[in-house]
Design goal:
mainly alpha
């Protein structure tokens, strides 16, 4: 009889014990995560110059494997994010492709495939771009999480706060290319010199994918310059003095991105990239380190 009541009590109390164990595990996990974040943002790394760090690495090469192993974990998680977001994008690939074909007169129905495998390759390209767009903030966070231990406390906060702006800049670049560049470039490209061009999926979508991706990346330039200035690798005055060379490089990049010699389309790319360059100079001035005053 005693065994019966013990078994009955065990069955009745099982759900409550499971809930208690689950809450205890979650509380312990949150406590460990909070402690790790507290230590991560409060610990100050030793300020070591680049030559000293290189000499230390040469003396102890095994210490480099710790960073390589950490990089491997971050890359693995980034690839995992890409797999998940690409799978989600593949589910919604039809509305995504319809949206990307809207700047084309007639939409996706105006595209005609010739090769048998052409639609498959086109779908894969568009799916990868959509997956990369969705996974971009997570990939940027993994990159920041890898380099953050080598930064100072103030630099960690600054770079962490900059990550939402990184995603906003990336989406802004893609939106600029989609809503401004494509409507202006497609009529010229499809009727260049009076020659009518019949767009195909394997030519139209790669062109759009490259344009959206590289314009999104180019809008990341201010953030990259801010981080480099914060690390002391670039200076605002040097960027300002080299603005003429920067304009030439921007013109070359604009020609490569637009894949056309039409000056109007190149100007559409050059103008925002030039503005971004001068914004980068301002951010470099804000982010660059001040040299410590030497006591007299």
């Amino acid at each position: 009889m005693r065994r019966f009541f013990r078994t009955l009590w065990f069955l009745i109390s099982a759900p409550f014990r499971f809930i208690f164990w689950l809450l205890k595990t979650i509380f312990r996990w949150l406590r460990d995560i909070t402690r790790q974040f507290y230590l991560f943002f409060t610990e100050e790394e030793e300020d070591t110059s680049l030559p000293d760090a290189f000499a230390k690495t040469v003396q102890n090469p095994m210490g480099l494997w710790v960073h390589i192993d950490a990089l491997r974990k971050h890359l693995f998680r980034s690839v995992l994010y890409m797999v998940v977001t690409t799978s989600i994008s593949f589910i919604f690939i039809t509305p995504i492709m319809d949206f990307m074909a809207k700047p084309l007169k007639g939409g996706i129905s105006a595209l005609q495939a010739v090769d048998v495998t052409e639609p498959v390759g086109t779908v894969m390209r568009v799916t990868l771009l959509a997956g990369l767009t969705l996974a971009f903030p997570l990939i940027v966070f993994e990159l920041w999480f890898f380099i953050a231990p080598g930064l100072k406390r103030s630099e960690r906060f600054f770079t962490l706060l900059a990550m939402p702006f990184a995603y906003a800049f990336f989406l802004s670049g893609m939106a600029f290319a989609y809503y401004l560049m494509l409507p202006a470039a497609l009529p010229v490209l499809l009727n260049f010199m009076g020659l009518q061009t019949l767009p195909r999926p394997n030519s139209y979508f790669p062109f759009v994918v490259n344009l959206l991706f590289w314009m999104g990346i180019s809008f990341e330039f201010p953030l990259v310059i801010f981080i480099l200035a914060r690390m002391g690798l670039v200076k605002a005055r040097d960027l300002l003095n080299q603005w003429r060379l920067a304009i030439v490089i921007i013109a070359v990049l604009a020609a490569a991105i637009t894949t056309t010699t039409d000056p109007a389309n190149m100007a559409l790319v050059m103008l925002p990239m030039t503005i971004l360059y001068f914004i980068s100079i301002g951010l470099a001035f804000i982010g660059q380190r001040k040299k410590p005053e030497v006591p007299g």
